[in-house]
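Hey, I was hoping to borrow your eyes for a little while. I've dropped the whole record in just underneath, so have a look:

——
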Amino acid sequence: MAKTATRGRRKAPARGKSKARSSGGGLLPWAVIGIAAIGGIVAHDHWKSIQPMLARQSAPITRETAEPKPLVRKDVPPKQVALAAPMPKAVLPVPQSQPLPPAAIPTPMIQPIKAVPSPASPAVSETGTVAFGYCGQGAHINCVGDGGVFWYKGEKIVIADMASPVVDQARCDGERRVAFAAKSRLLALLNAGPFTMNAAGKAEPSGAPRVVSRDGRSFGAQLINEGLARKPGAAGSAWCA
């Protein structure tokens, strides 16, 4: 009996605590309502000063809600905006300065130069090394026409330091024999080896005058010494005695 009595006494304070808790929990809503009522009265009394503040804070919110944001689609690529090319700067024309006239250059006095006669050029020499034959009816290239005339590379050459009879113009048999002998001897001299030809005047239709020699010995002098030619201008009637 004693144990049951002690148990009953211990439980009694617990019930008092629960009532206090329930009573405390019921006062909280009434306190919130009271604070809200007091705040409403204060707001009503100061409404004129609070209204502009609320209007400033609500303006950005209303704009954001009023202006709908464009929907961004993920599957559509963004538009490419072409950048404007920079405009070239206008180049101002540079004023060109007028060229100055050239200064007058003094010209020196030119003294006349006395003409000095040039020394006479030596005779042009040429060496021949071709084979010769007697001239016939065809073209005359390298051939002997008579005792004092031959063709060298198509040019007619007249031996200038001698005069010999011509076969076609012989006045007697003795002159004709001398003409044939001179022609044969000249062919032998030309084919004996290289020879030298020195110009002895200007070329004429009758032929180009040349002094033909070998080792310093003139062909004309040799024919004169052998009795087959005479010096130029000498009488030729002696071949027809």
Remarks:
- Helices lie at 2-45, 47-66, 173-190, 219-225.
- Strands lie at 125-128, 133-134, 143-146, 149-152, 155-159, 195-199, 208-214, 217-218.
